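Following the same procedure, sequence and fold were stored together, as reproduced here:

>
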Amino acid sequence: MKTNKRILLYGNSVILGTLGISLGLCSQFEVKKLALPLQETQMSDAAKTDILFFDLETTHPEAVLSWLETNPKLQLIGISPGINLVKVWSIRELREVSMEDLLKMITSEAKDSPVEPGGNEVRPSGR
């Protein structure tokens, strides 16, 4: 049985509301909202989450980055609709990595990045 991705929307901005409606229509996602400020009783929801969306214009990343320590599989996605920007944070723990492995990872990340070097333009997807 395939499990749904659990998505939390942290905050109550218009962009998060719109995103929540759109993602809620997809059966592979379980979407839930968290009100600001986060209450202690809501921390258990955050610990079981796959993706957390927040509005960069109303919530600073520092407010949610600590969640990566308690849930290393979590992806944090900050959205700034005013300047059409999306930032993604995640943690990957690598152990006993050789220099060759590290170079392969860096090369792969750079090749797969949708952003041109310098970070100013998005690469065409070729689709």
Notes: The longest helix spans residues 99-112.
